[in-house]
Design a protein that fits this description.
The protein is an all-alpha fold and 396 residues long. It contains 19 helices and no strands.
Length: 396
């Protein structure tokens, strides 16, 4: 069924998904970044400060770049500029990961992060509306498949072949090369589309008819941000004592779940019932991760962590596909850049203070307490979907 739907996609949509599949491979560098910084001597609080600083810079970039592109921008070039910042980011980690350059690399990347609205603009333009569920299923499945291979390969390499700083530097050289390849693919394989207007922090641009869906997404993402990946990695690496290969396997379960979740969602429809089931499952999985604090055996923690990664991500994938389908069906094509730009800014506002708060809770109170908070916050989004999905007509 996936193969048949792949054939239905236009070449431009296929190229966008191929680009995602290539670029998802170097995200292993982002995934292992906290562990690399732990090895370099960074504390959990320092990581919280780094990520909070990054979101503050992101807000500033959203305001400035939002105004710069108010008159319209070409999404293809926005994607390319954002990709070029990744090359610099990974180069810093590969060759000179001093603290001031790490902050600079994060600052540049987050300042330009509002350009990432171009990805959603491209998706809205290139994915056929009549098969949104199928398009997003492939959109999730293929990048998860390539990332699964890269995460296990990196974990094996860093544990059994080169378990030292040099190993990490080689990893980031590979990420730099993949980012260069991704940039070339944007140049050669991603088409230009109609220029879109975007906005910085103009909240009034969001229609009241999609506001419940936007608010629900922000609440769920806020729940995720309370228990960010560096909190999870701090627990399994610094406290539970797992090696990088075992950690990569737990994360690979998430990639496997992304593939399976895509196949499940492809067979269903975006509805209040399906979205509610997905959200309850995500919430339950975060509560499950908290129970790891009651076991001391590393193998048991590994099993719980793997179940958490699989259960949370299969549910997240299903939620993402159905949520994006419901949202995109209600966003008029002529306003896609503006609305997605405002949503990007709102996400950064939501994320701005959570890293340092999460780090303080994990280091001063309980290393897993944030997972209970996430569970409660995520499930609180359901009433908003009950409101937002009542209106079935499109805003176009």
């Amino acid at each position: 069924m996936v193969l048949n739907n792949w054939k239905k996609l236009p070449r431009s949509a296929k190229n966008l998904i191929i680009y995602y599949s290539i670029s998802s491979m170097y995200l292993v560098g982002d995934i292992f970044e906290p562990i690399y910084l732990f090895i370099l001597g960074w504390s959990l609080i320092y990581l919280g400060v780094l990520y909070t600083y990054s979101y503050v810079i992101g807000i500033l970039g959203s305001i400035i770049i939002g105004r710069l592109f108010d008159k319209g921008f070409q999404p293809k070039w926005a994607m390319l500029i954002f990709e070029l910042s990744s090359i610099f980011f990974y180069s810093v980690y590969a060759f000179y990961p001093r603290i001031e350059l790490v902050f600079l690399a994060h600052g540049i990347t987050m300042f330009l992060s509002s350009l990432s609205v171009s990805y959603q603009t491209m998706e809205k333009e290139l994915y056929p509306e009549e098969i949104y569920e199928s398009a997003f299923a492939i959109h999730m499945a293929l990048p998860n498949a390539t990332q699964l291979v890269s995460i296990i390969s990196a974990g094996f390499f860093l544990t059994y072949i080169m378990p030292n700083i040099l190993g990490f530097r080689i990893l980031y050289i590979a990420c730099t090369i993949l980012s260069i390849i991704s940039s070339l693919f944007i140049l050669l394989g991603i088409p230009k589309i109609k220029k879109s207007k975007t906005s910085g922090l103009k909240f009034s641009k969001i229609s009241k008819r999609i506001l419940p869906l936007v608010a629900a997404e922000l609440i769920i993402l806020f729940g995720y941000s309370i228990s960010p990946q560096f909190i999870y990695l701090n627990y399994v690496y610094n406290i539970a004592g797992m090696n990088l290969f075992l950690i990569s396997i737990t994360i690979a379960f998430a990639n496997l779940a992304g593939i399976i979740g895509s196949l499940i969602a492809e067979r269903g429809k975006s509805s209040l019932k399906n979205i509610t089931i997905a959200i309850i499952s995500i919430s339950a999985s975060y509560s499950l991760m908290y129970t790891a604090k009651f076991v001391r055996n590393m193998i048991q923690i590994f099993i719980l962590s793997s179940i958490f990664a699989f259960a949370s991500y299969i549910s997240d994938t299903i939620w993402f596909i159905y949520h994006r389908t419901a949202l995109y069906e209600r966003v008029p094509r002529e306003l896609k850049g503006t609305i997605f730009g405002v949503m990007s800014s709102l996400r950064m506002l939501v994320f701005m203070v959570t890293p340092i708060i999460s780090a303080l809770i994990a280091s001063r109170i309980d290393p897993l307490a944030t997972f209970i908070l996430s569970s409660i916050i995520i499930i609180a989004s359901i009433p908003l979907y009950a409101i937002g999905l009542r209106e079935k007509s499109k805003i176009s």
